[in-house]
Write a structure and sequence with these properties.
heterodimer; A: 311 residues; mainly alpha; ABC transporter involved in vitamin B12 uptake, BtuC; two-stranded antiparallel sheet; 68% helix; 3% strand; B: 410 residues; alpha/beta; Rossmann fold; 5-stranded parallel sheet; 15 strands
Chain lengths: 311, 410
Amino acid sequence: MISIFGVPGPLLFGQLSLGLINGAFYALLSLGLAVIFGMLNIINFAHGALFMLGAFASWMLLVPNTWLAMISPGLSVPDWLSLGYWPALVVAPVLVGAFGLLLERTVIRRLYKLDHLYGLLLTFGMALIIEGLARNAFGSSGMPYRTPDALQGPVNLGFMFMPKYRLWVLLAAGGMCLLTWFLIERTQLGARLRAATENPDLVQAFGVNVPRMISLTYAGGVALAAFAGVLAAPIYSVNPNMGSNFIITVFAVVVIGGMGSILGSIVTGFGLGIVEGLTKVFYPQASATVIFVVMVIVLLARPAGLFGKAA
Amino acid sequence: MPMSRRGLLGSAAAALPILGARRGGAQPGSVLRIGVLTDLSGPYQDVSGPLAVGAAQLAAEDFGAGAKGFKVEILQADHQNKADIGAGIARQWFDRDGVDIIVEVANSAVALAVGGVARDKNKVYINSGAATSDLTAAACNANTVHWAYDTYMLAKSTGGATVKAGGDTWFFVTADYAFGQALQRDVTGFVTEAGGKVIGSVKYPFPGTTDFSSLLLQAQASGAKVLGIANAGADTVNTIKQAHEFGITARMKLAGLLVFLSDVHSMGLPVAQGLVLTNSFYWDLNDRTRAFAERLRPKSPSRRPTMVQAGTYSSVLHYLKVASAMGVPQAKQDGAATVAQLKAMPTEDDAFGPGKIRVDGRKIHPSYLWEVKTPAESRGPWDYYKPLGSTPADQAFRPLDKGGCALAGT
């Protein structure tokens, strides 16, 4: 059996694949942040809370009668309204995206002309409110969510037994990242979006409804977070604080990748997942710190981030 | 002129101290003020939180102070799991708001900080929420009582019993801070004493870790028979959920070293089944505990009490009995003297049955070892535990002479 720095090969490969899967979550979340920052110039601190809402939405769709009873005893809906994992994968992001649209239309819109800091404060406050309301309604210890039957059990990869669900996460998150990248970098819609970022007035003069485009971009970024939330529900505890554990790391990913860079956030997300996975083998105590060490080094060498353009 | 937003904020801020002062200004007379200092908005909200406040209220109702000629007021505050905030509230309560006793205080760091404040102000402090056994060891004092459980009790019951059941090789997944390390240290002591061996451990950064799969794979690769889970709350839920996902449960026995009823509820039985854990209270233990849980039900219809919330009930009830017996003015006057009386009178209530408080402040009662039921065995919501065994009251906690508490004369 091969061994690298005293760690058996199979264990190391296992850790690398797990790192890649965690990286998929980082990539998906930081992608949403990058899209929103790129188009709206808003540092969306509510992203973690919206990720949490995605997970909660899938739980609420699964067991509508359980939470209705928690909110008001006696309320109930017919059983056929209960949606499993697969429909939730589409419905939850749409619902949370619509909620994002509402937020953008009502409050975030008012801050576009102001300094970044205002957007940061507003979205941070929104995150606290959303998480607080969720804690009040559902408590802090979280809700159970079962892995869908089709994805139960492991696959033998040769060096480890990988749960099927984790491979699905890698596939789904990777696919979604590619799709988003393609949409923004390779389609006409994406070209308009990018043009609107550079010069909104000019693009509007060409007859494009820029405010609507910006609203939908925010909703799209939020839907990406909610999609990650649904993917996370079967493996992480579905609790109101689940987003705040991720958000700091994800911000580091966005900064390392270069603020607003789509490709940067995807590549950095996966890359840092792997770096973190390896740290968990060699020195687990540092696994939370290592990302920030990388951030410091990158910012010293390239202040605009790995893929960012200097301002 | 309509008030500007800033003006409104300013006047609201100005009004706050007035509101506070009004409460503090009320003359005490024969009113006992009980402050429930707890986590109302964070990870331990379900373990303690609002239902612990409800449990304290129930104790006051069950005791019926009105008929005995004095009033009981229950105050509540959120320590936000920060030691400085907890200690600040405790000081304010004691100095300004006329609070006589602080109860609950989940979170070991806050618990230790509040212990110091209660001693300095000579008030009463009964902790039923924190795990650290230091409260009755190095950090013990004449004003502090530790009620429901501690790390030593958990380690002895779960650690000792698991080794006896054949789980003689252990691997720990440990939260890298004071609580996790203390728990691992205490359990390691019992495992080696019972003839078992600790093969390895992995410490992860707390807070901020959500994915435990890497750590679980290392545990599996070690070949140990038992996975010791030395963490709490959402971390425990995540660890067990992912151990299940990776099929670790088929090869290793999971030992949850601090698992509350609310955690099991959150995991769901399909994931939690088979988990071995120690709790000193379970609502379905006997007729008296069921009666207590039923009385508490109106406070929170969708939840059943944890051992922390039951401990809050039990401790407040005992305090009220003692305060009533020694006279309310005397009980308000001298915290240390009141605690001495708490220790002198045996405890008796529906949640924990008969018990007593040792000279070092440790409340003594049996501890129970439980296994989480399978979904087929469970008769409905909150029917989660089946009994595996128990440790009698006189053996459940650290012997008096082993803690190094000055009050124990060691």
